[in-house]
Amino acid sequence: AQRVTQPEKLLSVFKGAPVELKCNYSYSGSPELFWYVQYSRQRLQLLLRHISRESIKGFTADLNKGETSFHLKKPFAQEEDSAMYYCALRGNTPLVFGKGTRLSVIA
Amino acid sequence: DTGVSQDPRHKITKRGQNVTFRCDPISEHNRLYWYRQTLGQGPEFLTYFQNEAQLEKSRLLSDRFSAERPKGSFSTLEIQRTEQGDSAMYLCASSLAGQGYNEAFFGQGTRLTVV
């Protein structure tokens, strides 16, 4: 079975502080992992995927197969980062999403 | 707007009524997905099409739900005899099929309220 766990419903940080949104997954094969973001009143959109190993808007995420984790990190949070963040996994079915973490960046 | 569009954006219906939602994918995308999202949850997969073929349905898709994509372009999702538990945001997404990962683009969703 494919499962994605995001343990934090809400994460509040001060502007300029580091951010880490946790994501753990369960899948027996080789998964593809993604982070999606939903800003207020906007549609769900892809933020980054592990395959491309890119940094988007200052965010990075490293796939750790030993710990089955794909945590999202940013060294210095900005107010415009406030949004819902969803970790997602694609194994042998279409995308499976976690329940999401609401990030609130306080000025 | 050339993205995925969904209609209507909001629907309020009485329990027991039938409702139908429409999704227009990005024009060159051959895959189309339906998801449901309830409060406090992430999107949950319902079904997906490649062209006009419905390739997979999740256990969430009870026999009151039916989805079609008759010409491989737009899709409809119908819910018969709606129940209060059907109240949710219904999301549509589309992508290209093929080698490697092709990003799924989401619509803004249809919010269904069953009263």
Explain how this protein is built.
The complex is a heterodimer of chains A (107) and B (115). Chain A has 107 residues and is mainly β. Chain A has no helices and eleven strands. In chain A, strand 9 and strand 10 (96-97) form a beta hairpin. In chain B, 0% of the residues lie in helices and 49% in strands. Chain B has strands at 5-7, 10-13, 19-24, 31-37, 44-50, 53-57, 65-68, 75-79, 88-95, 105-106, 110-114. In chain B, strands 2, 4, 5, 6, 9, 10 and 11 form a seven-stranded mixed β-sheet that branches. A four-stranded antiparallel β-sheet of chain B has the order 1-3-8-7, with no helix packed on it. Chains A and B meet through strand 6, strand 9 and strand 10 of A and strand 5 and strand 10 of B.
Strand and helix map with partners:
The complex is a heterodimer of chains A (107) and B (115).
Chain A: E1 3-5, E2 10-14, E3 19-21, E4 24-26, E5 32-38, E6 45-49, E7 60-61, E8 72-74, E9 83-90, E10 96-97, E11 101-106
Parallel strand pairs in A: 2-11
Antiparallel strand pairs in A: 1-4, 3-8, 5-6, 5-9, 7-8, 9-10, 9-11
Chain B: E1 5-7, E2 10-13, E3 19-24, E4 31-37, E5 44-50, E6 53-57, E7 65-68, E8 75-79, E9 88-95, E10 105-106, E11 110-114
Parallel strand pairs in B: 2-11
Antiparallel strand pairs in B: 1-3, 3-8, 4-5, 4-9, 5-6, 7-8, 9-10, 9-11
